[in-house]
């Protein structure tokens, strides 16, 4: 999950080394695409070195951040929210990142799919609005296995990203939710990493 106040540039920079690794990205790219360099609602582009990074909105969800935050007193939370002109629940943004290396398209996280209701699951719409199609994606990197990051791997009982060489890779187990009151992470169980290629039945079972 990405909140509007998260330092997402640090997240993007952290995955770039992994993006260039042969273990995560197919050595033969099939979806080379030109840099687009335009903006529109639903996505935001920036250049990071020679890579074009497009932030894709999956939508927003209202979260009870006053109950999710830990190691802070309720009065402190209320005061901090007041300074930022915020009230709870806070409308929070969920984003994924498309990295165009010039020869490969790498998607970092896939959004929530249909797991969290109608205000999320917008990633595919915004991916297409940004000028790309799901079948162009060469590789999918899952930062961690919470449903708001991997829910978009499947559309119904089909793979969302059907490029013959596309792979979904996660390098870590899901983190333990920081609070039992977390609306986004409640009930998430620890699972082993997703292994390439896509495991249709396993991912579909997790969605049900």
From TrEMBL:
Transmembrane segments: none annotated. The keyword DNA damage does not apply. Residues 95-197 form the Metallo-beta-lactamase domain. It comes from the Bacteria. Residues 1-31 form the signal peptide. CDD domains: OPHC2-like_MBL-fold (cd07720). Residues 189-208 have a biased composition (Basic and acidic residues). The keyword Transit peptide does not apply. InterPro entries: MBL_superfamily_lactonases (IPR051013), Metallo-B-lactamas (IPR001279), RibonucZ/Hydroxyglut_hydro (IPR036866). Residues 163-208 are annotated as: Disordered. Residues 167-179 have a biased composition (Low complexity). Keywords: Hydrolase, Metal-binding, Signal, Zinc. Belongs to the metallo-beta-lactamase superfamily. This is MBL fold metallo-hydrolase. It comes from Archangium lansingense. The lineage of its organism: Bacteria, Pseudomonadati, Myxococcota, Myxococcia, Myxococcales.
